[in-house]
Design brief:
The protein is mainly α. The protein has seven helices and no strands.
Length: 145
């Protein structure tokens, strides 16, 4: 240490250089334990954010519920009407082609709402797991599979 102390000016300077190098080398490796701790912290912060947001926006609960129920009703009606049309097509042979064509168009429109329905159902029934639901829902909106 005497040589390095004289080279860098003092023993304290040498210790500081060694500590800095040691700290830098330690930061090069991101262990599984550190990853797990960071992920747990991130999940905890996300949950806390969601709870804080829900608390701060309680006055908007009625509006949120109205929008959610409205979207759900439209989505369910579209699926039910599509299903009924497809089921009636074999019995109403005179209009079967038109019924099936309409059924397909309505079903496609209902399917385009699947992303919104995923978000609504996730928000109301799986709020702590929204981080995994949002990505899938947004992919549905953008048309990615």
């Amino acid at each position: 240490m005497g040589f390095f102390g004289r080279l860098f000016g003092s023993d304290k300077a040498t210790e500081k250089v060694i500590d800095t190098v040691s700290s830098g080398l330690d930061k090069l490796w991101y262990t599984d334990e550190e990853k797990a701790e960071d992920k747990a912290k991130s999940v905890s912060e996300a949950r806390q954010f969601l709870l804080t947001w829900l608390t701060n926006t309680q006055g908007q609960n009625l509006a949120r519920r109205f929008i959610a129920v409205s979207c759900t009703i439209v989505w369910l009606i579209m699926y039910c009407v599509s299903w009924v049309m497809a089921a009636l097509a074999p019995w109403l042979t005179e209009h079967a082609d038109k019924l099936l064509e309409s059924s397909v168009v309505i079903a496609e429109r209902a399917e385009s709402m699947n992303g919104a329905m995923m978000l609504i159902l996730g928000f109301y029934f799986c709020a702590p797991h929204m981080s995994s639901i949002v990505g899938s829902a947004m992919n549905k909106f953008s048309g990615n599979k």
